[in-house]
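The following record pairs a protein chain with its ligand, S-adenosyl-L-homocysteine.
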Amino acid sequence: MNSHSHSGIGMTSQRTRDRLAQRLQEKGIQDQVVLSVMRTIPRHLFVDEALSSRAYEDTALPIGHGQTISQPYVVASMTEALLAAGPCQKVLEIGTGCGYQTAVLACLVGEVYSIERVAPLLRQARVLLRKLNLYNLHLKVGDGIEGWKSSAPYDGILVAAAAEEIPEGLLMQLGEGGRMIIPVTTANGVQELIRVTRRGSEYHCETLGIVKFVPLVRD
Ligand code: SAH
């Protein structure tokens, strides 16, 4: 059995992906375009082969280097929250990891810029995203806390690691009407998912829920 084929059979098949999308919808994801994208992206290719049978469970999984691939529900709800106010042309992602969220975004927005601090993870992500014929993305190794100035402003910023506070540099790179989805660790150690929307010089914050991410590391 070739568990890494695209159409796949058994635990990595289209039917398994359809079931995952069904589960995400039951958990409250409403954006049908997000769900249909997650129905097409072969998440099992983003995890180690030994874990591919678990790739369509709604759970985070280890990807090496002490990092994880985010839980599908979290990827779906962050993407939904980002796109709720309308389509995005240019999106900055912090924390490429294995590139799964990057792939989801690339199917939904004009251009994705994504930064990862762990070079071997980015290298793997680059190879895989190319293999999936996704070309509207730009990847680099670096400290995402600084953002990616030369391509700013962005109409969306999605941070996939928990920050102690919202990085000033990222706020500066948000365009007019732009929004940022970011997990922020509060005083009592809980992580809240925050959506920041920029209106002129004002930044409007909403709390979307409680989440659990690996920490955003400052290099
Ligand atoms: N987006 C991934 C989730 C990756 S986990 C997915 O689709 O599953 C979060 C990632 O953020 C890790 O790979 C970690 O190395 C990276 N990270 C942490 N701090 C960072 C920083 N300051 N800049 C860039 N990447 C960072």
